[in-house]
Design a protein that fits this description.
By secondary structure, this protein is α/β, with parallel strands linked by helices. It folds into two domains: 6-140 and 283-360, 3-Layer(aba) Sandwich (Rossmann fold); 141-275 and 364-376, Response regulator (Rossmann fold). Helices cover 41% and strands 17% of the residues. The protein has helices at residues 6-13, 36-55, 75-87, 100-113, 141-154, 168-180, 202-209, 225-235, 251-257, 259-262, 285-299, 305-324, 329-337; strands at 23-29, 64-70, 93-96, 117-119, 134-136, 159-165, 187-194, 216-219, 242-244, 266-269, 342-343, 348-349, 365-370, 373-376. Strands 2-1-3-4-5 form a five-stranded parallel sheet, with helices on both faces. It has a four-stranded parallel sheet with strand order 7-6-8-9, sandwiched between helices. Strands 10-13-14 form a three-stranded antiparallel sheet. It is globular. This is ABC transporter substrate-binding protein. Keywords: Amino-acid transport, Signal, Transport.
Amino acid sequence: MKTTTALATLMALGLTTPALAEIRIGASISATGPAAFLGDPQVKTLEMLVEALNAAGGIDGEEVTLIHYDDGGDPNKARTFATRLIEDDEVVAIIGGTTTGATMSILSVAEDAEIPFISLAGAIEIIDPVRPFTFKTPHTDRMACQKIFEDIQARGFTNVAMISGTDGFGASMQAQCKAVIGDYGLTLVADESYNPTDADMTAQLTKIRNTEGVEALINPGFGQGPSIVTRNYAQLGLEIPFYQSHGVASNGFIDLAGADAAEGVRLPGTALLVADILPEGDAQRDIALAYKTAFEEATGTPVSTFGGYAHDAFLILTDAIARAGSTEPQAIRDAIEQTTGLVGTTGTYTFTPDDHLGLDLSAFRMLEIQSGAWTTVE
């Protein structure tokens, strides 16, 4: 399917499909609570895209109805809302699961009911092992580790330290980094952790600073923790290369950490954060710029990677419905799995029966913060 922008794709859907009944899409997203910085742009993105699609005539003249609930990042609420969406609201598919915990609750319900579910969370266990009805749009935490290790290796370093959040995302990425670090000839020489509510990580960073031979530092985590780690890193005068995860890939991280403290921090991110400086001919340039422009005009706030995950999920789902010519969940599921070469803000998706992520490592861009802005690492 050839497209130049997501909005153009959505508009085209109204011209390409046979008549369908009302299309109800469900969402359970963390619009409030500790993961609100992730979920708020996701809700706003879905609302914006539904409005744009319906204004363009919907799918063959039928409007898409978005029914969404705020689970606040609570897995129990997410499970309840997923059940309500399926049994009471009669949705044909679900987008959501801002966090890994919420995602795992939703997918158990969706799989039992055989309803397509596209997750917005990062952990690899969401799609490994592959489950028939569960897909996701963000890169996995394992891929983030691999991208970081590639860069560390290319810079000639061998000894690595980690300081990880004990939240679901941080713990999962810590485990994945440990699982693949040996593939890159690197050695983990220090391994510290912190709780998501901790207000100071100086003690852990001091231990890392005093560990002989440390050449690079990685911080798996999301929320406010990585911003505090970054400030403490700067306060201690640490000068070793510092890597964050894609869990903080937004301007909000720079604001919370402070531009001076975050200077030089690298992380694996998406084309969306550097849309303005992508070269002509980049496959993601048009779609990233179109979404960035539309979102910022609609909300008055900067675009974020996390909203981009929702953008791509909606694009994947509506594209699948159009190709399926049906609102039957099984037909939609089959069409999602047959998606090939669909360009999103996060990467170009090609799903298979053995791959329900559809992205490879090339979809990640290594980014660096310079003068308070995101730049690409050549």
